[in-house]
Amino acid sequence: MPVQTDHLWMPFTANKQFKAAPRLFVSAQGMYYTTDDGRQVLDGTAGLWCVNAGHGRETIVKAIADTAATLDYAPMFQMGHPKAFEAASKLAEITPAGMDKVFFTNSGSEAVDSALKMVLTYHRARGEAQRTKFIGRERGYHGVGFGGISVGGIGGNRKHFSANLMPGVDHLPHTLNLEHAAFSRGEPEWGAHLADNLENILTLHDPSTIAAVIVEPLAGSTGVLIPPKGYLKRLRELCDKHGLLLIFDEVITGFGRLGTPFAAQYFGVTPDLMTVAKGLNNAAVPMGAVVCKNEIYDTVINSAPQAAIEFFHGYTYSAHPLAAASACAALDLYKEEKLFERAASLSQHFEDEIHRLKGAPHVKDIRNLGLVGGVELNSRDGAVGARAYEAFLHCYHHGVLVRYTGDILAFSPPLIVSEEQITQIFAAVGEALKTIA
Ligand code: PXG
Fold first, then answer.
1. Based on C-alpha coordinates, what's the Rg of the chain?
2. Rounded CA gap, 223 and 407, in Å?
């Protein structure tokens, strides 16, 4: 029986186009989805960059099932439950030194908005309430809340809402430059100086009014923009020079995507706050978090009287028992199976295979780091995105799931992917590109 699609308004989807020919997954195991017509599709994107340990992992499934049976829900406002604290401790084990405090949310978008509020609360607690402005970056994706789209830099996500965005936000330029850095393998050599634009922006504001800078260490959603060598270190130095907090949005880069727990460790740059979600619990139940430096937590908590709520923020489902239990199980699994190390050891093969597409029809640029890759296509005249959509569709019908945004194909397989499967993903793309006009 074909599924009735009329009632659901689908997110970030061309609803009319999709409903004319729906694509449905009915189950998933390991590296594969199964479609409603019984085909196996290799997951080249870890769902939406989130199922880092692969699908249907037994210990995670069991943790969720057991928890649902024993503690379906517990309030976290003025109450608690053990798994919430355990999940925070397990997460703190793998965060950069000195970043041991965790605030749970239900998504990356909520993590970003929570981080922005946390920053404002911190500055107020330390007597710098005038620090209210944020600096994001062009092409940044920080979720879809009003805070997130305000600091974000993706035109399509902002323009309908532009009259209602948060005030006091400015943006750094993005770091993609095809003239100097096309087909870079890993981090581009060119472009560290782009961080110096922060100084230019600060001259337009009083730096003492800036609360924080927020960037994705590696920009994912916008089409995989790899930071130039030295760029993030420079950004950190400039933030320190002017007393600005630095937020890394690690919703995509967290949990082994680059072969280290977080991009912060990969690049050797420690932010003041990190936003995470997705891989936090292998995406089994909606969950996100803000991780902050101990000093931020201590300052906020110690600024309030003993019986006072220190941070007026939280969600009904903050650290929901099912989410917390699945986070504990996922974090254990990453450790037991050494999946972050596995990602690191696969990254050279991934790089070699994706760069084989150089010279394939329509390919304009190829970018990669860890187990993240992007292939940018030349757009068809007057139809941006059409080529990538057709390539995506061809891959899907030939058993490989890829992602696309505009005319950029994106790849981020689960960290359990094999070398052969990596080869298969890019071979499927190569075949697809030959068939499309
Ligand atoms: N920050 C970053 C860096 C993200 O990539 C969010 C925040 C928001 O997370 P939530 O959980 O609210 O969606 C994201 C989400 C894609 C794609 O294919 C990327 C995201 C979500 C869906 C699709 O590029 N990133």
1. 21
2. 9
Identify whether the C-beta of residue 222 lies closer than 8 Å to the C-beta of residue 231. no
Distance 422 CA to ligand 1 centre (A): 23
pLDDT digits (tens, 9 = 90+) for 383-424: 999 999 999 999 999 999 999 999 999 999 999 999 999 999
Ligand 1 pocket, 113 CB below 6 A? Answer: no
27-63 pLDDT, tens per residue? 999 999 999 999 999 999 999 999 999 999 999 999 9
Q: Which of 157, 252, 273 to mutate to test the pocket of ligand 1 (most atoms within 8 A of CB)?
A: 252
Cβ–ligand 1 contact at 403 (below 6 Å): yes
Tell me, using a 6 A CB cutoff, whether residue 250 lines ligand 1.
no
- Within 13 Å of residue 333, how many CA atoms lie on the same side as its CB? 26
- Whether this prediction's pTM lies above 0.90 is answered by yes
Q: What are the tokens at 45?
A: 């994107």
Rounded to whole angstroms, the Cα distance separating 278 from 254 reads: 8
Q: Which domains are seen in the chain, by residue range?
A: 15-53+338-435 (3.90.1150.10), 62-336 (3.40.640.10)
